[in-house]
Design goal:
six-stranded mixed beta sheet; alpha/beta
Length: 274
């Protein structure tokens, strides 16, 4: 008779590489940063992660050799744009989980999944509930606005790329109306390109928000675009930047600081122009 073999209880992955910032931020919030052995070079939240963890990837590229040297038991990624990185790691025998969240509901779902993976399902649910309560409070305040501003959110300047789905949803929740809602459901940036800038002028946004991933938003350059002098937002000086780390990462940042920044801009506009 074969003696029963003793197994330790599963504790989830112990050596995690995060290819994007949102999973790093979330694991830190859950107090599970000791499991992280590698992060994205674009990580700025939390700031100390850059000092504590080796940077092993950009967004669409990664140091596969460096990742393998870390001996991860799990790599977490985001979006189909990281498919090539994922494939290389899978071929090398690494466990890879790539999420593809695009909506607010999907972001919450991914947050719970990651929390559960590291044995923090209950804490994850509690933190998610807090974020949802904060969003509900913002939505309640937004519902009382006498007028909702039309908002153009620009992810990139040349070519013009409009807001991804979760940003569009957060704009609506914060009290504004995305002027390109029909593009928001397109998951790829190339499918949210606005070929003719005159269409933005025609839709005449009350507020312009820029979040140019990887470079500083330049409102003076936007205001100087041909024909944009007649846009309401330009006339009234309603051009603002929200840092991409706060709004374009599909994780805790967008659901807290990102939406809060949107709401402040909208409420300030309402007091002046609403």
């Amino acid at each position: 008779m074969v003696a029963a073999q003793a197994f330790s209880l599963p504790q989830g992955p112990q050596r995690i590489v995060c290819l994007t910032e949102e999973t790093t931020e979330w694991l830190y919030l859950l107090g599970q940063e000791s499991r992280i052995v590698g992060i994205s070079g674009y990580t700025v939240r939390p700031r100390r992660a850059r000092e504590e963890k080796p940077r092993v990837s950009a967004f669409t590229s990664a140091r596969i050799d460096k990742i393998l040297a870390l001996q991860p038991d799990c790599v977490l990624g985001f979006s189909d744009m990281q498919a090539d990185i994922a494939a290389a790691l899978i071929r090398a025998g690494v466990q890879v989980t790539v999420f593809n969240q695009r909506s607010v509901a999907e972001i919450f779902s991914v947050l719970y999944q990651v929390a559960a993976m590291v044995g923090q399902g209950e804490q994850g649910l509690a933190r998610i509930a807090e974020m949802q309560q904060q969003l509900a409070a913002i939505a309640k305040a937004a519902a009382a606005l006498p007028r909702r501003p039309k908002i153009y959110f620009e992810e990139w300047d040349v070519p013009h790329i409009s807001a991804i789905q979760w940003v569009s949803e957060l704009i609506g929740l914060a009290g504004g109306d995305d002027i390109f809602p029909e593009l928001a459901t397109q998951s790829l940036g190339k499918n949210r390109i606005i070929a003719d800038g005159a269409e933005i002028v025609r839709r005449n946004p009350d507020i312009i928000i820029g979040s140019w991933c990887g470079k500083k938003f330049r409102p003076e350059l936007v205001a100087a675009r041909t024909g944009w002098g007649e846009v309401a937002a330009v006339k009234t000086g309603q051009l603002f930047e929200i840092k991409s780390a706060d709004i374009l990462q599909p994780g805790p940042a967008a659901l807290t600081d990102g939406v809060a920044a949107l709401h402040r801009i909208i409420m300030d506009w309402s007091r002046l122009h609403g």
